[in-house]
Design brief:
mainly alpha; 0% strand; 75% helix; 3 helices; 73 residues; single chain
Length: 73
């Protein structure tokens, strides 16, 4: 396995272990959501952002894996 590929896998694994580091929002959304009591809506918004951000990466990784398998088959 190439060193760059291994480093990418390790980085992806590390990001999966620490999902709270990728929770972010725009400043206007953050201001509105921080004023709410209970923070249930804010947690839902954060989870939605992470979900929307992760999907394109998962799809690209899947296509890359299929192409890799086809090239070395």
């Amino acid at each position: 396995m190439k060193k760059r590929t291994f480093l990418g896998i390790v980085l992806l694994f590390a990001l999966c272990l620490f999902p709270e580091t990728v929770e972010a929002q725009c400043s206007m959304c953050r201001a509105v959501l921080e004023s709410e009591e209970g923070q249930a809506t804010a947690k839902g918004i954060n989870n939605g952002i992470v979900y929307l951000m992760a999907m394109p990466y998962i799809l690209v990784a899947g296509v890359g894996f299929v192409v890799y398998r086809m090239m070395y088959k």
